[in-house]
Design brief:
By secondary structure, the protein is α+β, with helices and mostly antiparallel strands. It has three helices and four strands. Helices cover 38% and strands 19% of the residues. The radius of gyration is 14 Å and the shape is globular.
């Protein structure tokens, strides 16, 4: 059975992943939006402790589809969230959002950030 401490750790991990992705991809999202009940189901963040996956979904400003990501976390230390310890899959909405904001593909942004971190 999960303890309050477990839920706090999961919440902190999800929040840090959201902040990391927001910073890296210049996304127009805020962590608080994922906790605002009035914005559900437009903003969703879920953590699955069974397989250490984070599911994120949020509105895309440049696509009719929501942006969604599935993130696998390999390092639970929330201070070390970077592209060396996560993998992720994304949909077309996220791809279009990143391209419009950055004039770069998701892969290009990923490579730039990954190489900065090593």
């Amino acid at each position: 059975m999960k303890t309050i401490n477990d839920y706090e750790k999961e919440s902190s991990l999800v929040n840090n992943v959201i902040e990391f992705l927001k910073k890296v991809f210049n996304l127009k999202i805020e962590v608080k939006d994922f906790y605002n009940k009035d914005l559900y189901p437009f903003y969703k963040a879920e953590f699955s402790s069974y397989n250490d996956l984070i599911y994120l979904s949020f509105p895309s400003f440049f696509s009719s589809n929501n942006s969604s990501l599935i993130i696998k976390v390999f390092e639970k230390d929330v201070k070390k969230i970077n592209f060396k310890n996560i993998t992720f899959e994304y949909n077309k909405g996220f791809e279009k959002e990143v391209l419009k904001i950055n004039n770069l593909s998701v892969e290009d942004v990923f490579q730039n950030e990954y190489y900065k971190s090593i």
